[in-house]
Amino acid sequence: MPTKIAKTAKATQSAPSQPPLVECKNLTKIISKHIILDDINLTIPRGKIIGLLGRNGAGKSTLLKTMNDLIVPSSGQVLVDGQPIGVASKRIISYLPERTYLDKTMHVAEAIKCFTEFYDDFDIAKAQKLIENLDLNLDQKISTMSKGMQEKLQLTLVMSRQAKLYILDEPLGGIDPATRDYILDTILSNFADGASMIISTHLIADIERILDEVIFIDQGKILLTADADTLRTKHHASIDEIFRQKFNHESKIS
Amino acid sequence: MMDNFNFQSDRPIYIQLVEQLELYIISGKIPPGERLPSVRDLALTTKVNPNTMQRALAELEDLKLIYTERTNGKYVTTNTKLITKYREKFASEKARTYLTDMQKLGFDSKTALDFLKAKGGIK
């Protein structure tokens, strides 16, 4: 038993017997001669919240889709928990895609039932509690909800799984500040102990305080992976400012 | 306890957590011997990542301002001498900052002190 809690945190992320949670090896994706992902080598550790940061079209969604077996790489591979992606990896990854995939003709209760049937790790009690907090009725039809409410519902369903890895693709796209706070709270209070989370976004200022690590991606290449607080110390700047300085060569930030 | 916690995003968050918690402890806002909320609860109320909070608490533990009782959680030290020592250190820094700032305005130490006595309490 470790004597210091600080050591415990380190021990869980680098227990020698465990493979990394996700490992991308020479991952390349070419679509009609365009290089979307360019020889990506990346390791996602356990127990961390990681920001995948890049401009529009940087390759964020494509990278996340390959981890979810929705895109087949042109070359290279992704290992999840040491295994090639497939049925086993889907069991431990809870994925919030960029666009909603819920059948809008369903009621909330039907959507919950759907998730219960699909995923062994789905926690119905938790989902129901979160949905109550949203002031949603179980018999409400998804098509009658606002876009923001549909996004919250989908996040609730994704966060109600006891997954090892949560992948959230642009969870903050086009939402108001109050909803953003709700989403950050939901993320922080519901991700399972020892699990990891990858959040992709170009709205960095909104989420940087909850990130352990950041990955900068641009033109299909990984430019940087670093501990968030180490990066702040090094540059005396916020992650948001560092990102802007890296990518807005033409406009100097005051 | 930790509500209204504002961060500057250009400085490491765990350091800001350490500073804030240290201030709460040396000022007595969290009294000696008090049990701290769980890491998860502290992280939630301050809206930071639990790992960041863990790192801040480990730092406070290194400073001996808090200690871990196995399985029971974390407590503020009962060593009031140590708390006084940190409080005095913190106060000295503030005093030095005051004197340096006043020097920049052209006050020598004595005039700065007289000024503090005369006007310090006035808004």
Mean pLDDT of chain A: 87
| Binned strand content of chain A | 15-25%
Number of strands of chain B: 2
Largest interface: A-B, 29 and 26 residues
Low-confidence stretches of chain B: none
Report on the biggest sheet of chain A.
Answer: 6 strands, mixed
- The sequence of SSEs of chain B as H and E is HHHEEHH
Content-based structural category of chain B: mainly alpha
Strands side by side in the biggest sheet of chain B: 1-2
Structural class of chain A: alpha/beta
Figure out the total of helices of chain B: 5
Q: Any idea what the radius of gyration of chain B is?
A: 18 Å
* CATH class placement of chain A: Alpha Beta
- The CATH superfamily of chain A appears as P-loop containing nucleotide triphosphate hydrolases
- Taken from the alpha-carbon principal axes, the silhouette of chain B is elongated
Number of separate strands of chain A: 10
Strand content of chain B: 5-15%
Number of domains of chain B: 2
> Which quaternary structure do these chains form?
heterodimer
In whole angstroms, the N-to-C terminal distance of chain A is 50 Å
Give a brief description.
By secondary structure, chain A is an alpha/beta fold.
Mind explaining what this structure looks like?
The complex is a heterodimer of chains A (254) and B (123). Chain A has 254 residues and is α/β, with parallel strands linked by helices. Chain A has ten helices and ten strands. Chain A has a six-stranded mixed sheet with strand order 6-7-8-3-9-10, with helices on both faces. A four-stranded antiparallel sheet of chain A has the order 2-1-4-5, covered by helices on one side. In chain B, helix 2 (39-46) packs across helix 3. Chain B is mainly alpha-helical and 123 residues long. The model of chain B has no long low-confidence stretch (mean pLDDT 90). Chain B starts with 12 loop residues before the first helix and ends with a helix. Chain B has two domains: 13-78, Arc Repressor Mutant, subunit A (Orthogonal Bundle); 81-119. Chain B contains five helices and two strands. Chain B has helices at residues 13-26, 39-46, 50-62, 80-104, 109-119, and strands at 66-69, 73-76. Chains A and B meet through helix 1, helix 7, helix 9 and helix 10 of A and helix 1, helix 2 and helix 3 of B.
